[in-house]
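Troubleshooting log. The previous structure file for this entry was overwritten by mistake, so regenerating from the original sequence record. Sequence copied from the archived sheet and checked twice against the printout by T.R.
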Amino acid sequence: MGKTKLFGSLGIITAAVLTLAACGKSDNNNDNTDNAKSASKFPEETPKKAVKQGGTVKLALRSDSPFTGIFSDELSTTVPDSQVAEPGEESLFETDDNYKINDEGPATLKLDRKAKTATINVKKGVKWSDGKQVTAKDVEYSYEIIANKKSKSQRYSSQFENIIGMKEYHNNKSDKISGIEMPDGENGRKVILHFKQMKPGMYNSGNGYFWESAAPYHYLKNVPFEKLMSSDQIRKKPLYFGPFKLDKLVRGQSATWIPNKYYWRGTPKLDKIVISVLSSNSTSQAIKDNKFDVTEVINSQWEQVKDTKHVNFIAKVPLQYNFIGFKVGKWDAKKGKNVMNKNAKMNDKALRQAIGYAMNVEQADKRYTHGLSFRVPTLIPEQFGNYHNKDAKGYTYNIKKANEILDKAGYKKKGKWRRQPNGKPLVINYLARQGSSVNESIEQNYLQQWHKIGLNVKLVGGRLSEFNSFLDKLHNDDPGVDMFEAGWSLASEPSPNSLYGESTPMNYSRFVTDKNNKLLSEIDSEKAFDDKYRTQKFHEWQKYMNDEAFVIPEDNAYKVYSVNNKLTNYSLKPSQNNNGHQLWYKVGFKK
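Regenerated output below.
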């Protein structure tokens, strides 16, 4: 998995605060344990069988909002858009099951620590769906899209400034990125990236220090950067070099893909892939009716679908988590960095910590998701091995402690609600996304928890927000938002720099501290090639983040899929995916 994305409709992780469904509200912990054990035993892929040529696969896109349809890795930041693009989109690199980049993908990578370079060779025959070879210029152009402020890409971060000349290009001090070399010319297939420093994560996909996609320069070059995101070339007729090309689009609702006849690995097995939006409230019935060939299960609806016939269930714990974030600043587009506001309402550690301790995440997850969701104590998931701080406790439910923290910090009650230490009224505006049918009642549960400690927390607009409206408020630092919940689908290299760094637009809390900058720098330093040192710094960062509570980790969950039992070669294993996407050229129906 190469890139971090924001969740849309939140069946992706069945967070208590997000997608708890109306049925199956069992308090039986034994049932919960059994369900979790069952999920842990599910295979990560369908049984392998001989594949026949032909057939149409229908995929459900779990979303309670229309997808935005930004068909560009450089410009898109949401999971729904990524899922819709999956049949056509391929990354330059593929990985083994530990996310280490190998030579199996469309391009190869060679790192030279002494020369401080990364050499990318695009394989001959890797072609866009219009038949043009993917070139060195296409690789370079993707960096220009990300770094040019006019494109409004959310992908730019300080990590890219480790490429020589990237910062100068980003700040309009140069018309090219000097550290991107094309030794065989723009139409060649070799690119050499020149770095200021080599980084320990560079051997893994998703490291954030080099981009892992390409953009069709010959197709997009006449579109001004400021018009790229809204252009027909991006929104209606995109080019990809993956196994399928976009044939038909019903804006925001469905996409039909047919084989890319120029695909470098040969003709895909399937004739067509149709992806359609499916709402949370319709998901369980769609699974039981076998309406789609692949559907993601909403964990809170597991009891309804677990006995469905003619399907295989596959599952894994994904690199994802949900979190609560607190707005303490804004994004300064001119400076290209986050700027904290020392007077922000939520710029008080005691207030943030109290909010965390008041949340009954474990109890809600056990009750409403049948044990398939679970609280996470830190922002580095267990899948990252020793980098995960096993000693991190996070914010366990403790109303008494929450009240004590607020009392000590001077948030005194006047009637039902606490006031700010300066005596002024305190109202906290909370932004949360729509989800499945009982989301409203689950959100009310958390609101009640916060009310119990005397905090007057209210939903922005008095209700859950439609996802595209949610994104707009989050991206643009709506002054009416004090705190929010969101979820990250993570890159497969654990460095948190691209999410929580000073120069990343995706740091939506907008917090910036010298210590955070220092720890992030140390995690990705040359010294961190010493894995013991890097592990230590990861642990320090997690402890620091939990203490400061600018972002409070909530939960993760088993991701369970219902797959037509006639389908084969569908897999969740990293080695059988490309940048987190299914290798669709392999997938087909059994003979």
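The chain is about 25% helix and 20% strand. Archived copy saved in two places this time.
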